[in-house]
Amino acid sequence: MNLFRFCSGLKVLGYFMILLVFAVVAVSYYAVVVNTWWPILIESSNRGLSALACLIISLFHFLLVMLLWSCFTVVFTDPGSVPEHFRRELGGGESLEAGTSTDQGAFGSIGYCPKCRNVKPPRCHHCSVCQRCVLKMDHHCVWIVNCVGARNYKFFLLFLLYTFLETMLDVVVLLPSFIKFFSEAIKHSSSPGKLASLVLAFVLNLAFVLSLLCFVVMHLSLLSTNTTSVEVHEKNGDVRWKYDLGKKKNFEQVFGKKKAFWLFPLYSKDDLHSITSLQGLEFPTRSDIDP
Ligand SMILES: [Zn+2]
Ligand SMILES: [Zn+2]
Questions:
Q1: Distance, CA 128 to ligand 2 centroid (Å)?
Q2: What is the pLDDT of residue 177?
Q3: Longest CA pairwise span in the chain (Å)
Q4: Is pLDDT at 1 greater than 60 in this prediction?
Q5: Is 141 a catalytic residue?
Q6: I need a surface site. Which of 25, 45, 112, 207 has the fewest CB within 10 A?
Q7: What pLDDT digit, counting tens, does each position of 131-154 carry?
Q8: Domain containing 160: what range?
């Protein structure tokens, strides 16, 4: 099999996946807002039900805005590549030859990428789809047609979180109509278009919420131990992971220290400046904080 063709194929698949996400969003919007809860808000004489409809519609739009914002940010943010000047900063790199790995003080262990013919900062890995080394590479994500690395991991996690919450909301608020669907289908009292969009939206959202749940749990566990998806295979089971600084510090290494920015795909200037792991070249280890 031609690996290059396979990798290019993954890129094309990515564009299809983005279209699929937008199609699911459009169908869900039609089923949840246009078809179900907006009519209730306008027509219902029950004040409690109208208030509930208002709450659901507001929450739906809030999550949708956050989802799209995180999506665009993670798609268009460079995960981080090895800077041109990196070799010089290390002092000429005389001792760095192919296949060697050496310790360079603050930068930790430096590797070498035979494909890029360049040094690799710690936690950096070569992506065969992007054809380059990516800083603190987590994985290449076909859903966003981009690598997930040091500079966009937070945005990826927020995209995951908001998509999970939005699809979960869709499933919960469509459930009563979905149950009603079976009785109405027998009586033929609802239009076929409405029913088709309801069933499609419910089934798609349910499938998404179940598969996303696995990813959410997996990435929460990775986040709490400051591990990337690539590093899971590098860890030695018995020894505590060297980048594991404790849950709170691990979280701050990805989300920053400014609480006001945690839920948004943004960083404060202070955090970008003071947290070196966000630039993807230097990472504090356990021995730095607890010698
Ligand atoms: Zn490389
Ligand atoms: Zn990649």
A1: 7
A2: 85
A3: 80
A4: no
A5: yes
A6: 45
A7: 999 999 999 998 888 999 999 999
A8: 6-79+150-204
